């Protein structure tokens, strides 16, 4: 699907604030409510808009500890990747999980309450996933940039 200037403007506005009304979006891009509504429905139908979410303030939730982990599996084949993908997808502490090229197989972003919580998670749920041979953990000291906005 080809996105025009108006589609991109709508997407930019919704990424900044998904609670904007159709009327508010229309006012900002000089378009009436009906075409704005039709465009949003088309963007949803085509899968460009995947879902609407609420972004939480992690600090207000208790100064949560964020960790990036590099994970290496014992075998680099489809069955090993598939089994790991299924196991990691069940863990709510995992915010992002990407299979990557390079010296390790996965880069994972986790969030837990504190170091004790991470230790429990690591020992009871994470390190026991079959096929893992190495995990390197990196603890976030300062979050310089965190956005969900995709350039359009």
From TrEMBL:
GO biological process, one term: regulation of DNA-templated transcription
Domain HTH asnC-type per the UniProt entry, residue ranges: 3-64
CDD domains: HTH_ARSR
Protein source organism: Fibrella aestuarina BUZ 2
SMART domains found in the cross-reference section: HTH_ASNC
Protein name: Transcriptional regulator, AsnC family
Gene Ontology molecular-function annotations: sequence-specific DNA binding
Keywords: DNA-binding, Transcription, Transcription regulation
A Gene Ontology term for the protein's cellular component: cytosol
Residues in the signal sequence: none
Highest taxon above the source species: Bacteria
UniProt-listed PROSITE patterns: HTH_ASNC_1, HTH_ASNC_2
Cited SUPFAM superfamilies: Dimeric alpha+beta barrel, Winged helix' DNA-binding domain
InterPro entries per record: ArsR-like_HTH (IPR011991), AsnC-type_HTH_dom (IPR000485), Dimeric_a/b-barrel (IPR011008), Tscrpt_reg_AsnC-like (IPR019888), Tscrpt_reg_AsnC/Lrp_C (IPR019887), Tscrpt_reg_HTH_AsnC-type_CS (IPR019885), WH-like_DNA-bd_sf (IPR036388), WH_DNA-bd_sf (IPR036390)
């Amino acid at each position: 699907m080809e996105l025009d200037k108006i589609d991109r403007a709508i997407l930019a506005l919704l990424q900044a604030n998904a609670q904007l009304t159709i009327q508010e979006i229309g006012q900002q891009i000089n378009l009436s409510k009906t075409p704005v509504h039709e465009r949003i429905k088309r963007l949803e139908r085509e899968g460009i808009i995947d879902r609407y979410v609420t972004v939480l303030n992690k600090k207000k939730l208790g100064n949560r500890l964020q960790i990036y982990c590099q994970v290496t599996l014992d075998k680099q084949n489809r069955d090993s990747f598939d089994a790991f993908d299924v196991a990691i997808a069940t863990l709510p502490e995992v915010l992002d999980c990407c299979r990557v090229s390079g010296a390790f197989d996965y880069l994972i972003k986790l969030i837990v309450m504190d170091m004790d919580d991470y230790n429990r998670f690591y020992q009871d749920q994470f390190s026991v996933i079959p096929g893992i041979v190495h995990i390197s953990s990196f603890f976030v000291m300062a979050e310089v940039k965190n956005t969900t906005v995709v350039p359009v």
